Amino acid sequence: MAKTNSVWYRTETFHFISPKRKMPITFDLLCKIYPFVNFLSSNDIIFWSAITCGHFLLLRASEFTVNGNEPFDPSQHLTLSDVNSHQSPTGEHYWTVRLKQSKTDQQHEGVTLYMSHTNHVICPACAMKSNVTLQQSRPRKPTDSPLFLLEHQQVLTRQHLVTFVSHLLRLVGIDPTAYSGHSFRIGGATSASLAGLKDYEIQMLGCWKSDCYKTYF
């Protein structure tokens, strides 16, 4: 698996203030909020998987959550069948995530993203494994079920996600009003730059068509 396909390549509720520029949810910030995630809670496990997936894969919120006013559509949104676990020839485990469509994918050809282990407590591959194991443990769960399905059969929405993250940010003394669903994508780009990835690698991994991503770091 090519190096550029490693882990780095890749709501806000109605009462939030919307400044022009949102703050990034960076790797360092994930480290700060991690201790406040309750991994005995099914919902927290699912939320954490979505958070790390969005951050490390540089996803737009619309690519891994559902807007609150629209129904879940397995032909567009992420399902259990869109993620798969693999093992490389050298024995390394990694996950693939298949996006059926995105903002820059006008032809709806889809794209496959790669998510590997980080050897760190903040690990999207570990979080995805926990989420998939949880989802598959539920009775009669078809493969076209939502990848991120909360308790009481609630599909993860942008509003659910940002409300949860806002709670975690408050616990570490950070004002959440400067953050939004887009903070995962720009935070992933910022962290990738700090980790040493070149600009063109970040552009490729985030599927940017222009160099607007450079304003994030």
Automatic annotation (TrEMBL):
InterPro entries: DNA_brk_join_enz, Integrase-like_cat_sf, Phage_Integrase-like_Recomb. The keyword Transcription regulation does not apply. The keyword Cytoplasm does not apply. One of its GO terms (biological process) is DNA recombination. Keywords: DNA recombination. One of its GO terms (molecular function) is DNA binding. This is Tyr recombinase domain-containing protein.
